[in-house]
Amino acid sequence: MEPLGLYLHIPFCRSKCPYCDFYSLPYREETAAAYVQALCRAMEQWPAPRTVDTIYLGGGTPSLLGGRLLAALLEKAGRVFGIAAGAEITLEANPGTLSLPLLRELRAGGYNRISLGMQSSQERELVLLGRRHRPGETAQAVELAHRAGFDNLSLDLMLGIPGQTPETAAASVEDAAALGPRHLSAYLLKVEPGTPFGQRGLPPGALDDDTQADCYLSAVETLEARGYRQYEISNFAQPGFASRHNRKYWNCDDYLGLGPAAHSLVEGRRFFFPRDLEGFLRWERPFDHREEEGTGATPEEYLMLRLRLTEGVSLSQAAARFPQWKGAPAFARRAAPFLKTGLLCQEGDRYWFTPQGFLVSTYLLARLLED
Predict the structure, then answer these.
(1) What is the DSSP letter of 322?
(2) Burial tier of 151 (Cβ tally within 10 Å: 0-12, 13-18, 19+)
(3) Using one digit for the tens of pLDDT, what is the confidence trace for 267-301?
(4) Which helix (DSSP H) or strand (DSSP E) does residue 49 occupy?
(5) What gap in Å lies between CA 253 and CA 297, rounded to an integer?
(6) How far is 314 from 346, CA to CA, in rounded Å?
(7) Which of 148, 189, 268, 367 fits a 20 to 30 Å CA distance from 323?
(8) Which DSSP symbol is given to 189?
(9) Rounded CA gap, 56 and 66, in Å?
């Protein structure tokens, strides 16, 4: 069987950002130690271990666990699953939570990729987003990571921040690229109903759709000019450094997610763990509490996720993977109007969105994949 992707959710933060909808709770040292034990217990009880070739620790702020606990998680994964040679092993962190001793401990423990939540290089925008770090701390974190032996670094940026202009967005993109990360993500701010931004409304200066589009298209153009190839709606990389773990999601490959709110797709079935840290700590048999989501990796889901990638989807490859799917003629027919408007491109039986198409991808996918 193909190697598995392993995702470990670390639901601890120093404070909650007002836009964040991920499951996270305040960090407490004693709870963190107990949680690592619970994750190790879950790994031991997974009924069908197989080699993993990507591991991703997301959150939350996983770096808060410290080197000893983070190394223990990798050690357990290696014993239970076996980690493939050359595996991509990513840790999310926030600038200001990293020190040189911690980074050296992580590198020695097997981590080889760091993803930093930069978000912006503008002081006002960081304050508005509730971020704890300040602009210079991202550069400091990048320098420390390099000194510790990390070559594969990723930076996250946010676009469409209230009060942001195409000029300040471009400045953040330029500042991020100047740090030389191998990978950059640039996400448009999305307001979720349960977040503080969703409950009380965005602060003054919220951007209209046209300004958000300008910020996004400017970021695409700037990063391409700096040697970063866009390979997904919000992701850019130097050659050879696209996120191997995230590509599993977009290719409907198997991945196992452990921890409260973690989702999985394994052998065509989707399931997730409830957003319940106390329960996850208490459960002796955590997989008895997983919630089934039904069939995954369907032809329609595959098409939808592959169209997030700039390489798009080949209809013949989709048909080969899903012999029961007979929808290629209907897809081609629905795609025709969008080829004329420049939102979609075609070469042979391969289709992909343009940057302008990515901006309205939700609408396009609904039209292309309708019953």
Answers:
(1) -
(2) exposed
(3) 999 999 999 999 999 999 999 999 999 999 999 99
(4) none
(5) 8
(6) 10
(7) 367
(8) P
(9) 16
